[in-house]
Design brief:
8-stranded mixed beta sheet; alpha+beta; elongated; 11 strands; Endonuclease, Chain A; single chain; about 50% helix
Length: about 280
């Protein structure tokens, strides 16, 4: 009976820690909160023992824990006692993240317009247009020549347009060169992935990490890829396939900053099973 109870407690702890990770917290914050929930209010020394987090680290994390509404500190003679705040306080954090994402989304169109207009006249700027399937494949294949990190905001997957044969060659080349990818995706991308892999099996990117942007917070309507000093914007429908490649270090740098601001507000996701499956 005790083993069953202990196993259930471990599963519960994993659920709590997984959700803290989705919120972007340091894993040690989850350890501290779980220990407080399990053992009640504790001194710093007791909490270090029950959570496995070093005392110095607990002191360093206390400000973040308090600012996030996760703990309160009771001052007693010669020591402080740490109390866990109600888990419902996390709703305030979720609301804050939603507001931050909405603010990022609101200024994006003006931001891109201003950066593009200032850089378009620069001698270091090259703008190239691609159209049709051959153009799309060329844009994607050029990525295999750059071994740095590739950042993508993706509306849907590309293999249902490029075809399996090209996509497999592209993936194999990326994997052989150990190219790393981070992607921000939404519901439509996940739907196209599920539809594709329900009918196909093929090699996948080995260095791929994705995060989920909810439709209500940051709707993705076309795809943007940033690598090196290039920013690619492309879209396709049944009537037309087209893309624009802007090569400018300033545009790429600012787009990379925007991507990272958005990335840091989002939760990890499995691009095949969706946001509810994150572990």
């Amino acid at each position: 009976m005790y083993k069953l109870y202990y196993a259930a407690m471990q599963r519960d702890d994993l659920v709590i820690k997984s959700y803290f990770e989705k919120l972007g917290f340091d894993s040690r914050i989850a350890d501290i909160y779980v220990a407080l929930q399990a053992h009640g209010p504790q001194s710093i020394s007791d909490l270090a023992r029950s959570s496995g987090v070093d005392r110095i680290q607990i002191y360093r994390l206390l400000d973040e824990l308090k600012a996030s509404g996760l703990v309160k500190v009771e001052a007693r003679y010669k020591r402080n006692i740490i109390h866990a705040e109600p888990a419902s306080n996390i709703q305030l954090l979720i609301t804050k993240k939603e507001q931050e994402l909405a603010g990022i989304k609101e200024g994006y169109a003006d931001f891109i317009a201003q950066v593009s207009s200032r850089s378009a006249s620069s001698k270091s700027t090259k703008v190239q247009f691609y159209e049709g399937m051959d153009g799309l494949r060329q844009m994607l294949w050029d990525q295999t020549r750059y071994q740095g990190e590739n950042l993508s905001i993706l509306y849907d997957n590309s293999q249902h347009k490029t075809g399996k044969s090209f996509f497999e060659r592209w993936v194999r080349s990326c994997n052989e060169q150990d190219i790393h990818f981070r992607g921000i995706i939404g519901d439509h991308f996940i739907e196209t992935q599920q539809a594709w892999y329900a009918a196909h099996t093929n090699e996948r990117l080995k260095n791929w990490e994705s995060r989920y942007a909810p439709e209500a917070i940051f709707p993705i309507t076309y795809s943007i890829i940033t690598y090196g000093d290039k920013v690619l914007q492309f879209n396709w429908n049944d009537e037309r396939i087209f893309g624009i490649e802007i090569q400018n270090p300033d545009v790429a740098r600012v787009q990379r900053q925007f991507f990272n601001l958005l990335w840091n507000q989002l939760s990890r996701v499995d691009d095949l099973t969706g946001p509810s499956s994150v572990s």
